[in-house]
């Protein structure tokens, strides 16, 4: 009888130890991706697929330098993940779809699509290197509380698509380049200390902010630059009537047109679009030639554009307080 009891206890202990070990194996907090096969995975998508659904702890996917040609999707059941590159200029996620390949259309051209919530990208490049033959999205977001820190977004037309109404996005210390409407969509997004680089005479933003959302795109302390020969760039045009975009304390290059804003060839948009500026400097920041339907914020009005107001109930997620 004692021998049977002892055997049972040993089996229980062994099962318990195996279970704990299994849980530890499942809960791996850092996954390493390397192209040479020396990490846990060779492709980023493989690492994402290895993450457990709806985690209540954070997993870091550390991506070593290299060029990863992937059409990467972060599914809706993946949350609390940080994708961290080894070096922003040397860790590159790239693909080359554009809208005119087999009638693909704009919204399937992404290099990276983020459907999950509470995802952070840091120190890496997301690129759509398709030839300039149509819309070609590098980053497509549909998740909430997404953060991009020290990242580079490279492309031509429609580089960054913020694709979900009411979701909150933060871009800080990022470089974003493109030709036409290279930041577009309906989300609420704060861009801090970013460089917006125009590669062609065209438009920087094309917000489609819903009427019921107070904040659309907010650019603070950003720098607007252009390629040689680019001299006629608008700050934005309304993709939808209630587009909301504001530039505060930014540095404008001489490529910004005196008018500042465009009505997308529809005078009715002038009654509804919510375009504003405050405290900007540089050759292109003069306001005497601005369209009459754009607004110059007072200092008091500009103070309203804080993370607490912009992100509302998600403001506790904003890390730079």
Automatic annotation (TrEMBL):
Pathway: Glycan metabolism; pectin degradation; 2-dehydro-3-deoxy-D-gluconate from pectin: step 1/5. PROSITE patterns: PECTINESTERASE_2 (PS00503). GO terms for cellular component: cell outer membrane. One of its GO terms (molecular function) is pectinesterase activity. Keywords: Aspartyl esterase, Hydrolase, Signal. It is an enzyme of class 3 (hydrolase). Gene3D superfamilies: Single-stranded right-handed beta-helix, Pectin lyase-like (2.160.20.10). Its EC number is 3.1.1.11. It comes from the Bacteria. The active site is at 181. Residues 1-22 form the signal peptide. It catalyses: [(1->4)-alpha-D-galacturonosyl methyl ester](n) + n H2O = [(1->4)-alpha-D-galacturonosyl](n) + n methanol + n H(+). One of its GO terms (biological process) is cell wall modification. Residues 31-311 form the Pectinesterase catalytic domain. Pfam families: Pectinesterase. PANTHER family: ACYL-COA THIOESTER HYDROLASE YBHC-RELATED, PECTINESTERASE 53-RELATED. Belongs to the pectinesterase family. This is Pectinesterase. It comes from Bacteroides acidifaciens.
């Amino acid at each position: 009888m004692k021998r049977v009891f002892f055997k049972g206890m040993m089996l229980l202990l062994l099962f318990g130890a195996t279970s704990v070990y299994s849980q530890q194996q499942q809960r791996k907090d850092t996954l390493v991706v390397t192209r040479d096969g020396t990490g846990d995975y060779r492709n980023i998508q493989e690492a994402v697929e290895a993450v457990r659904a709806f985690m209540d702890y954070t997993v870091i996917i550390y991506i070593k330098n290299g060029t990863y040609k992937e059409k990467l999707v972060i599914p809706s059941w993946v949350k609390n993940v940080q994708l961290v590159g080894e070096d922003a200029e040397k860790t590159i996620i790239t693909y080359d779809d554009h809208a005119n390949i087999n009638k693909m259309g704009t919204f399937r051209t992404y290099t990276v699509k983020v459907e999950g919530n509470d995802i952070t990208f840091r120190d890496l490049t997301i690129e759509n290197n398709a030839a300039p033959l149509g819309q070609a999205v590098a980053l497509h977001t549909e998740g909430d509380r997404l953060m991009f820190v020290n990242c580079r977004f490279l492309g031509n037309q429609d580089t960054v698509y913020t694709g979900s109404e009411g979701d909150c996005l933060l871009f800080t210390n990022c470089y974003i380049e493109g030709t036409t409407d290279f930041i577009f969509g309906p989300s609420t997004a704060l861009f801090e200390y970013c460089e917006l680089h125009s590669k062609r005479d065209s438009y920087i933003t094309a917000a489609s902010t819903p009427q019921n959302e107070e904040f659309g795109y907010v650019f603070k302390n950003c720098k607007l630059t252009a390629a040689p020969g680019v001299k006629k760039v608008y700050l934005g045009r309304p993709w939808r009537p209630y587009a909301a975009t504001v530039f505060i304390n930014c540095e404008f290059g001489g490529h910004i047109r005196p008018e500042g804003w465009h009505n997308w060839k529809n005078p009715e948009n002038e009654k509804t679009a919510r375009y504003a500026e405050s405290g900007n400097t540089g050759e292109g920041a003069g306001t005497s030639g601005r369209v009459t339907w754009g607004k110059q914020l007072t200092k008091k009005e500009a103070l309203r554009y804080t993370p607490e107001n912009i992100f509302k109930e998600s403001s506790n997620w904003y890390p730079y307080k």
